[in-house]
Amino acid sequence: MDETESLNRAIHEEVALFPYDPTWPTLFEKERDRLLDLFPDEFLAIEHIGSTAVPGLSAKPIIDILAGVDSISRADELLEPLCRAKYATSMEYNASLVGRRWLMRWAEGRRTHHLHLMVYGSEEWHRRLAFRNKLRADTKLAQQYEKQKHLWATEFPSDREAYTAAKGDFINEALKDSL
Questions:
Q1: How many whole angstroms separate alpha carbon 41 and alpha carbon 36?
Q2: Residue-number span of the structural domain to which 154 is assigned
Q3: Phi/psi class of residue 14: alpha, beta or left (left: φ > 0; alpha: ψ in -120 to 50)?
Q4: Which tens digit of pLDDT belongs to each residue from 115-142?
């Protein structure tokens, strides 16, 4: 499979959840270290977020990385260098985002990492970390979330945007008294 075919498969990959893999934190650390080596002065913090950051939680096997920058304009400036560093992105998709930028890494036709560039310390920065921390601390909430994710993956197997939107209401409800 050539690189273009691999990227196209990754872009159109179906939503599929896998049991928790204890190697996920190590995969995050490896990519965090790679990013810090390549861009030593660019990120104010790099955090592991998403379901792969919650021990025991099933997930799409994609490592979600939250990288803090000092401004969205700085995030925009980093898109091209990050694409040279084995990431891909959609400028059209990023233009639709408010307060963040998104990239992905892939290998062998599947997504391996999502990189979320966000202003360090922003409301959305704190929101993403608060949800991760709440799932880590509350086993019952994590189990409810996992159950719902399986339902959404069944309902939206070919529509990642609908799957992500469905998670939004759950996340908002979980955080309503936290922020």
A1: 8
A2: 3-175
A3: beta
A4: 999 999 999 999 999 999 999 999 999 9
Q: Please report, for the domain that includes residue 117, its CATH number.
A: 3.30.460.10
Q: What is the pLDDT of residues 135-159, one digit of tens each?
A: 999 999 999 999 999 999 999 999 8
> Could you give the CA distance from residue 89 to residue 112 in angstroms, rounded to a whole number?
14
**How many domains does one find in the chain?**
1
Give per-residue pLDDT as tens, 10-41. Answer: 677 889 999 999 999 999 999 999 999 999 99
In whole angstroms, what is the distance from residue 102 CA to residue 93 CA? 8
- Give the CA count within 13 Å in the CB-facing half-sphere of 94: 21
Q: Which helix (H) or strand (E) holds 33?
A: helix 24-38
Biggest alpha carbon distance in the chain?
48
DSSP-assigned letters across all residues of 59-113: B-S-EEEEEEES-HHHHHHHHHHHHHTT-B--HHHHHT-SSEEEEEEEETTEEEE
Six-digit token string for 91 = 């400028």
Residue pair 84/64 in contact by the 8 Å Cβ criterion: no
